[in-house]
Amino acid sequence: MIEFQAVTKRFPDGTTAVDELSLSVEEGTITVFVGPSGCGKTTSLRMVNRMVEPSSGTILVGGEDIRTPHPAVLRRGIGYVIQQAGLFPHRNLLDNIATVPLLSGWTRAKARARAGELLELVGLPAELGKRYPAQLSGGQQQRVGVARALAADPPVLLMDEPFSAVDPVVREGLQDELLRLQDELDKTVVFVTHDIDEAVRIGEKVAVFRTGGLLAQYGSPADVLRDPADDFVANFVGKDRGYRGLSFLDSTGLTLSQVPTVTIGAPVEATGSEWVLALNEQRQPRGWRSPGSAPSAALREGDLHAGGSLHGHGSSLRGALDAALSSPAGQGVVVDDTGAYLGVVSAETVLEVINRGSAG
Ligand SMILES: Nc1ncnc2c1ncn2[C@@H]1O[C@H](COP(=O)(O)OP(=O)(O)OP(=O)(O)O)[C@@H](O)[C@H]1O
């Protein structure tokens, strides 16, 4: 879908920002360009919509050389999202989102109606449409930035560090939202970040760049974590890459064990030497009773030890290991889609599955 053929960018001051980049971005995937600062990710991205002209080499989008159409026409087929959203401060959100449709000749009414739909698509209430960018949080502005880029329904979306300026929790929410949107929209997305965690979380393919604008490795996140091409990539992905690689192994093969359970609000006896898991009426875990707890006429949440993370059955082994390691009882609690208790796993059980090489 997007093809870089031996693309080089040399700036007039002699800096080689991108050096002979050859790479194919597959249609309908999220491909992440990742690497340390100054390694040419942004320059590579901006060459796709001709905000930067290559010094040599060819870029094809949908099989067509990007030099063929007029740059303005090319850019209408390519949504572009940047850090801090880059919204026009004096236009309300609907008008911000409607910018490209209006340029493409849509009527104002049609463009605004589309803008309203897009606000909802990115998870914002349509009533916000009359607000101005400064009246939104950073995370909300980023969502509007995505809506604006999607307005003319371009097949390609370029995203340059779109979530870097928001705090980690909001950032994770935005990443989830992008994955959800992508499920629905199937765009060809190129996403630039310097954060390897973000790259492996959202990328179906990851291109790791090294200083000097060289491509160090191009593959699936699992490949890059498990089998780094060289020391540079191994260092860049970090020492805990083995642990992070667990994100790509599913846990359906884990054998669950059972622990004694009690229900919040019900009378409970003293606990013996075991940890006892407390559930609510919907059988959702609420915490643990420690060994040697006194009897009570009605178990209250305040009497419990907070639980560790919960592991959704069948999701990644990383989540299973995290649940086990963060549990006060040393047993990770596994839940179904409704959050109801299914069983527990110990860290040893997870490690056995890892040692067998697969969970399947
Ligand atoms: N207009 C320019 N003139 C000269 N050099 C430039 C220009 N734009 C970028 N560069 C240089 O090209 C190299 C690559 O820059 P680029 O912005 O593509 O890197 P990056 O990987 O996106 O980095 P960052 O994550 O810091 O944005 C850097 O050395 C940068 O200083």
Automatic annotation (TrEMBL):
Source organism, top-level taxon: Bacteria
This protein's record includes keyword Nuclease: no
One GO molecular-function entry? ATP binding
What SMART domains does this protein map onto? AAA
Region labeled Disordered — which residues? 282-311
Q: Any idea where the ABC transporter domain is?
A: 2-237
Q: Which InterPro entries match?
A: AAA+_ATPase, ABC_transporter-like_ATP-bd, ABC_transporter-like_CS, P-loop_NTPase
EC number, as in UniProt: 7.6.2.9
Keywords, sorted A to Z: ATP-binding, Nucleotide-binding, Transport
Top-level class of the enzyme under EC nomenclature: translocase
Q: Determine if Transport is one of this entry's keywords.
A: yes
UniProt family annotation: Belongs to the ABC transporter superfamily.
Q: What is this protein called?
A: ABC-type quaternary amine transporter
